[in-house]
Design brief:
Layout: H1 8-47, E1 51-53, H2 58-64, E2 68-73, E3 75-85, E4 91-100, E5 106-114, E6 125-131, E7 137-139, H3 161-189
Parallel strand pairs: 1-2, 5-7
Antiparallel strand pairs: 2-6, 3-4, 4-5, 6-7
Length: 190
Amino acid sequence: MKLRDIPVASSLIVLAAVGTMIWLGFWQLDRLKQKEALLAHYAAAQKDDTLAAFPQGEDAITDLLYRRSAFDCRKVDGIRSVAGESSNGTSGWAHIATCTLPDGGSGQVALGWSQDPQAPAYVGGRVSGIIAPGGRIVADPPLAGLAALARPDPANIPNNHLAYAWQWFIFAATALVIYTLALRRRLLAK
């Protein structure tokens, strides 16, 4: 076996791919730390009973998720029904109203749960509850004669970054083993 028998281009491509996979594994470990910090922030927000101003804009929503908030629904612009779960875990329908706020902005409120997909009668008023992903308030107490929806819970947010990191490291090791075996076979054939 001579050094000149080793294919340079193939070796560089494999080493670059392995390096990229290892980098992706460490990137996922960094994302794990970020996600754990975010989940800790959300868990603390869940325990904070002070009323937060209703958020306007994506950054404000992310910072205030799982906090209690309220707004005045001056006008109901529409109600839609989507699949939802009640506070006791029963599947059914969540009824979400889009409201015009006093400042002219828009806000959404998940009014509550029912087994009937027909939208309930709701004309607006004071809304209070938990800020859920998507920026809507999950009404607590429920409105329009509906049952309570399941409370938004940060524990339902997936945190798979450690598994993804291991996956990338295993891919890198597998690529090295396969390339080493292929290279060995090639060199022994000569």
